[in-house]
Amino acid sequence: MTEVFAHRGSAQVVRENTVAAFAAAVALGADGIELDVHLTADGVVAVHHDAEVPGRGRISELTSTELPDWLPALPQALDACRPLRVNIEMKNELETWTARDDLLAAKVAELAVSREEVDALVVSSFSLRAIGAVRARAPRIATALLVEPTDSAAEALVTAHDHGHGALHPFFLAVDQALVDAAKAVGMAIRPWTVDDPGLIAALAEIGVDAVITNDVTAALEALGRS
Asked: Model confidence over 75-103: pLDDT tens digits?
C-alpha cells in the first residue's frame, strides 16, 4: 500500500508545522506526517520550515523562549503526530557543514531514540552528511536522502544505498518505474515529494512508490481509493 504523508501537517486546513496541523492530519486519516526542524540558539529542536520566523528573526539566533507560542519544539510535535509515522526533515542553513549542523543531528538522534515510536520515525535531509551524522549516532533510526529537482534521482539512489540509508525522497517528477524498481531491488523505499495532483498520485502508486508526501491528504486518499 502506498502511504500518505501530510506535508508539514494538514497545511491546507491550519497553519503548517503546528500542533493543530499535525492533529488535523491525524484526524483526516493520513498515514504519516512530514515536518521540518531547526536548532534554536539555546539548543532546542524547533519545528518550522524556514530559517527565519517572520517578525522574530532567525531561529538560530533566538532562544526557545523567544519563539511564538504556535511554533512547537520537536517533542511536542511528535506527541501531536501519534500514532502516525513521522518524517523529520533536518534543515541546514548553510552549504558548508557547521558545528550547529552536527549539534542538530545529535539532538535529533538523541530525541528519536528516546521515543517509544522510534521505529515509526525517519530522519531526512538534502545533506548526506546530516543523515550520516544521525545514523552514526543511532543506527536504529531510519534515514532518507532528499533529492533536489535538478539532481539525478538515479545517482542519488546509488549514493544513499552506498552510505547505508534506507530511503530516497525525490521530487515527484523524477520518479519513474525504473527508479522504483532499482530501489526495490536493493530494499530501499521511495517517497516522492510534494505531489498534490490526484492523477499523479494514483500513477505513482501504480508504479509502486512506498508513500507520497502531499499537501492535500483528503485528495490523496481519494486518489488511492481510501476515502
From this structure: 999 999 999 999 999 998 777 888 999 99
